[in-house]
Specification:
The protein has 311 residues and is mainly β. The protein contains 1 helix and 15 strands. The protein has an 8-stranded antiparallel β-barrel with strand order 5-6-7-10-11-13-14-15. A 4-stranded antiparallel beta sheet has the order 1-2-3-4, with no helix packed on it. The longest helix is centred in the first third of the chain and has 45 residues. The radius of gyration is 38 Å and the shape is elongated.
Length: 311
Amino acid sequence: MKRLLLILFGLSLITSAYSQDPETKLKALESKDSTLEQQSDTLKKYTPSKSDSTKIRIGKQSITIIDDDESTVIKFPNRRYNTNWNVEYNHKPSFKGHWAGVEFGINGYMDKNQSISMTDDKSFLDLKQARSWNFNVNFMQYSIGFGTSKIGLVTGMGIEFNNYHFSNPISLKVDKDKLSSTYGMTIADTSYSNFDVSKTKLSTTHLTIPLLLEFQIPTSDRGHRIFISCGVIGELRIGAHTKVEYDDKGKNKDKNREDFNLSTFRYSYTARIGYRGLKLFANYSPVSLFEKNKGPEVYPYSIGLILFNFD
């Protein structure tokens, strides 16, 4: 009898426990649904309307990376041990300009009326335009953004090489502090009259320092922008020489290094535009190629392609 009473008591306890379990499970499910709903609302709140997102899952932890033109957001949503926080890392892309690189083009000069035809007392400076070239190596760059990746200042340093190929068989010399040409003769007064002159040119080398304002325009091609920049380039002459090549039963060369009354300091206005592989530049100096009253009044220019930029 005693054993029967114990069995009945045990059965009553088990029945009571099972009668409470569905209600407990229901509350647990409701609590879980509420948590999932809160997580869904949180994700909706932080999901940009126009962006690319990537979700990475490592075990039970997920990482969401949201990227747009202005910023990159990294999220670690609703960790188990901190269910009320979202950890975000915001990184705005820094401004990066376009200066450092290699450029190639043609160069020449204009008179004070912006004509490239050399007449009268400047006729001896007439150029073979197709053989007068400009080559620039811009080896240093520093970009200064204005709180956005789309506009900023660009500076740096470079080396500019210019070759002016003369049409006439001349070279240049300084005579009593005045620049003059010597038709049919070298600087050493050796006559060319019996020889075929194949090349005669003036070459200059300048150290350059730019100050550019650059704008970048986003395009539908993600990662590529149109850039437009303008500004000034300061130039310091660090070298100059003339070279004449002529035939005398073989190749002969006369080369002379001198300053030729060239301006030591000058500056140029510059404009640049580019998109992907097509990039152009144009430079014009309002400072004469030669020092005032010591040579012809001509103003140098150069136009060409930016072959590539250093990343």
